[in-house]
């Protein structure tokens, strides 16, 4: 090995350290997946805050009901969807597998299930809107069912990608723990 100003070790040209400079692929993947999941969690928090604001405005009657409609029933259990995201964030610093698994399971229960219920709850109103052109609930002049279906579609994609990346992250963590056990 070569030092900055000193002599080189005998029998080397200073380039034999390259193989020790690489980071193992599962560590690189872990960092990249954590970054993607954090981005998705931030998008989820943004959606969550919008729904929370709509619920507060609707219940506290800060704006008239023709401006912001009362929330649909699926929005109440969806407020619990912040818990899986927090569990996911808590799993990152020390690669805590149990927190990540709990986050994935509770994402299905508190995030995906209310979205499915919401799509089914709003379907008759969406049918009425598109067949007859009648909407009874509005959010800032737009049909509430259209706006909330858009929220459901975006949230379903966010949670779907979050689950996909969490599974890949879990696999990369299992790879690293298996390699540690072999040593």
From TrEMBL:
<dbReference type="GO" id="GO:0038158">
    <property type="term" value="P:granulocyte colony-stimulating factor signaling pathway"/>
</dbReference>
<feature type="transmembrane region" description="Helical">
    <location>
        <begin position="99"/>
        <end position="118"/>
    </location>
</feature>
<dbReference type="GO" id="GO:0007029">
    <property type="term" value="P:endoplasmic reticulum organization"/>
</dbReference>
<feature type="transmembrane region" description="Helical">
    <location>
        <begin position="138"/>
        <end position="158"/>
    </location>
</feature>
<keyword id="KW-0256">Endoplasmic reticulum</keyword>
<dbReference type="InterPro" id="IPR009787">
    <property type="entry name" value="Jagunal"/>
</dbReference>
<keyword id="KW-1133">Transmembrane helix</keyword>
<keyword id="KW-0472">Membrane</keyword>
<dbReference type="GO" id="GO:0005789">
    <property type="term" value="C:endoplasmic reticulum membrane"/>
</dbReference>
<keyword id="KW-0812">Transmembrane</keyword>
<dbReference type="GO" id="GO:0016192">
    <property type="term" value="P:vesicle-mediated transport"/>
</dbReference>
<dbReference type="Pfam" id="PF07086">
    <property type="entry name" value="Jagunal"/>
</dbReference>
<protein>
    <recommendedName>
        <fullName>Protein jagunal homolog 1</fullName>
    </recommendedName>
</protein>
<comment type="similarity">
    <text>Belongs to the jagunal family.</text>
</comment>
<feature type="transmembrane region" description="Helical">
    <location>
        <begin position="40"/>
        <end position="62"/>
    </location>
</feature>
